[in-house]
C-alpha cells in the first residue's frame, strides 16, 4: 500500500437525486503528491441509465475495496476515500461510458476497462483528461474495446 504522502488522494461522492436516480462521481483532492491540484477536481461521474447498466459492477468493486454505500450519502458532506487504482478504473469507466447507448458495446467496454492494468488505465485516463480533444481519445478507446477483430 502506498502512503498518503506519495499518492494522490481520491474521493468517491454519491448523490441521490430521487428514487432510482443516483449519481456517482470520482474527485481528486489536493495532496502533497499532486501540488498542481489546489481544489477538489472532478475526474468523472455517471448518472442515469448508463450508471444503472453497470451499477452492479461498480458496487462489486467498491465492496471489494471496503466501501459500503448506505443510501444516506446525500446527507453527508464528505465522500468515501478510495485507492488510486480504483479511482483510475472508475474515472476511465465513467468517462468512456457516459455518451454510449448500445448495451452490448457498453458491456464490452466495461469488461475491457476492468481487465486493464493500472498503467494502462492511467494512460487512457490521463489522455482523456489532458488532451486538447478528449472525445477523440475516448472514441478510440471505445473502438478498441468493441472491435470484434481485435482479439
Strand content bin: 15-25%
Q: What global shape is seen? A: globular
Q: What is the percent of helical residues?
A: 40-55%
Structural class: alpha+beta
Poorly predicted spans: none
User: Reading side by side through the largest sheet, how are the strands ordered?
Assistant: 3-2-1-4
Element string (H = helix, E = strand): EEEHEHHHH
Given the structure, what is the number of helices?
A: 5
Whole-number average pLDDT?
89
Q: Kindly, what is the distance between the CA atoms of the first and last residues, rounded to a whole number of angstroms? A: 33 Å
Radius of gyration from CA coordinates: 15 Å
Number of strands: 4
User: How would you characterize the largest beta sheet?
Assistant: 4 strands, antiparallel
Give the helix/strand layout.
Blueprint: E1 9-18, E2 21-29, E3 41-47, H1 49-64, E4 80-82, H2 84-97, H3 103-115, H4 118-130, H5 134-146
Antiparallel strand pairs: 1-2, 1-4, 2-3
Helix pairs in contact: 1-2, 2-3, 2-4, 3-5, 4-5
Describe this protein's structure:
- The protein is α+β, with helices and mostly antiparallel strands and 151 residues long.
- 46% of the residues lie in helices and 19% in strands.
- The protein is built from five helices and four strands.
- It has a four-stranded antiparallel sheet with strand order 3-2-1-4.
- α1 packs antiparallel against α2, α2 packs across α4 and α3 crosses α5.
- The longest helix is centred in the middle third of the chain and has 16 residues.
- The relative contact order is 0.14.
- The model has no long low-confidence stretch (mean pLDDT 89).
